[in-house]
């Protein structure tokens, strides 16, 4: 199934991000009774343009993380490829895979920031907050005053600039997630990707971080991919939504349309099992 925002489908030039026949299967563990490979993601096509915001929803095990890890080049596909601005970032073809290392991947990393679910596991406890946030600048070799940039971005995510001296264990869960977001935007990416970035947080903090993401998106003009089991989050943040079920995108379209008049029975079931959406 092709995921394309109808509002931007006419855009000339290569899309921001394009998946072509992107699939991932895992080999069965050695000695397993059923030795067949498991398909975590069936071949999927997906197109995003600059400024798009795509939500990915679906039950546990439906392939959301698998898809996002491929789209961010954290994993290599078993089939197909991912292009960013027309350049192949990851591909199942061995010869292409070799070429992709180095410059192109570095260029891609400069344009993307990723936030994960667990703000406890994702921050190195031995590093100061300042060092954690500076990490992408160091890794990507971004020139300039790193300290100044770290202080600037701390304020941008609603933390005092002197938090750079602290260590993760001295922070609350919400503060940690703000640090994780600061790290994801410090190198000024154009695409921000979140895999359940709000689900480990309690309700009040979740609302604050959601508000932060909404304002950062507008302020920085970010394109967005947001995995969430919370349909309210997707409704708030994403113009389009893709619904995943058993390793496939079964429905996609403008979020308001999909949530109001779902076309696939699985989407209807997902909506029925969710809490009522604000304004519904
Ligand atoms: N490294 C792996 N080895 C084997 N199977 C895997 C691996 N990673 C994921 N899978 C399988 O792929 C399928 C999709 O997993 P994935 O993590 O993408 O689901 P998800 O939609 O992100 O679920 P959740 O909402 O629980 O995070 C699952 O059946 C999972 O068990
Ligand atoms: Mg997941």
TrEMBL record:
Which Gene Ontology MF annotations are present? ATP binding; ATP hydrolysis activity
Q: Which keywords accompany this UniProt record?
A: ATP-binding, Nucleotide-binding, Transport
The ABC transporter domain sits at 17-271
Gene Ontology annotations of biological process type:
transmembrane transport
Q: What InterPro entries does the database record attribute to this sequence? A: AAA+_ATPase (IPR003593), ABC_transp_ATP-bind (IPR050319), ABC_transporter-like_ATP-bd (IPR003439), ABC_transporter-like_CS (IPR017871), P-loop_NTPase (IPR027417)
Q: Name one Pfam family in it.
A: ABC_tran
* Domain of life, per lineage: Bacteria
Name of the protein in its database record: ABC transporter ATP-binding protein
Question: Native species of this protein?
Answer: Mycetocola tolaasinivorans
